[in-house]
């Protein structure tokens, strides 16, 4: 640990010398800690802390100003649990002082044997069921899903990666308390994205457990890191749009740092080997007589723009903003056009207008049942699909209450409704999160994905439509 104390009598020369020495000590300490952690990982003896670079940096800034500093240990661990060949290591120094949820975090720990992240909260806290989102950035990108409460104070997150190694980790807070499917969408406030990160800057873990049989699963791929111009990998922090970052203000440093898209450039998507072989069979498909009818609005339009395999059949955009637009007349027209594959891509506009979860579920249930009834009358010649909704990146319309509801916690709820309906009524659900999830904050206009993620999503949808997986 480092301890720096206040000394108001230090002259200018000594102050400069102190600054240089402090900076050098910081650099050396990070290297030493990294080496120790890596060695421990190789021996499978320790879990790894998200070390407190942020706090060390804060102390360095206080040294420059001649202020008193906090005492911060870079990492901590407890004794190895010989009964289970592991130990319970708490990751200390987490939480940003301006973050409501971050201030209520006691520890974050990584269990490399189980591929889990556990966050322990204060018992006496304001945010009883916070919504968190995590991302790993190393040889591959991966989302950490936090949806399992081990106890009232411990939240468990899980990850899957195809390769071992050093991964930067970022965990952000989205909501103080989770939304309920039987609740309303009014009066809900998103956590301030300027302070939503609860992990320290440059935090990392060493991953030793990889996704089982990754190369044998059909329909999956991953975003891998490829350095450019010998650059060193840096953390992939969540992209967001601060207030007043439009027009001429967009070039200001506080805006460019938070909104730039260059952070994604070193990452490229690829299918695993088995999926690549299966998808190659699409080239031989005879699409004569096939008409794919995609129902939705702008996200559907952008999707069709990126569906390049025109030999697979006709691609038809059936325009509908809201679930309520898809009425009996609309459905009759679909079958009059001889649609053979009907893909529902609804929800964006409903969520933007704060349509309650129960209302959305009622509307989607009606559509599914009407489509199945009409299809039965036509001899079941059409296939029905439901495509998952996209997340929107965190834009500047997040005042309290939040103006934009098309964000992960709310979209997850709509998608959960769609999945339940598909399971209940035997409809194919198209989940494209293997492509879109790790780069959910990439949309350049804060809404639509017009980059390589959309192109790969289109291929994945083709695979589902033609029953390849």
Q: If you had to describe this structure to a student in words, what would you say it looks like?
A:
This protein is an alpha/beta fold. It has helices spanning 12-43, 53-65, 253-259, 273-279, 298-305, 328-336, 348-352, 357-377, 408-425, 433-436, 452-465, and strands at residues 105-111, 116-121, 131-137, 141-149, 154-158, 165-175, 204-207, 221-225, 267-271, 291-296, 314-319, 341-344, 383-387, 428-430. β13, α9 and β14 (428-430) form a beta-alpha-beta unit. α1 (12-43) runs antiparallel to α2, α6 runs parallel beside α8 and α8 (357-377) packs parallel to α9. It is globular.
Could you name the key traits of this structure?
11 helices; five-stranded parallel beta sheet; seven-stranded antiparallel beta sheet; Rossmann fold; disordered N terminus; alpha/beta; single chain
Summarize the structure.
By secondary structure, the protein is α/β, with parallel strands linked by helices. It has helices spanning 12-43, 53-65, 253-259, 273-279, 298-305, 328-336, 348-352, 357-377, 408-425, 433-436, 452-465; strands at residues 105-111, 116-121, 131-137, 141-149, 154-158, 165-175, 204-207, 221-225, 267-271, 291-296, 314-319, 341-344, 383-387, 428-430.
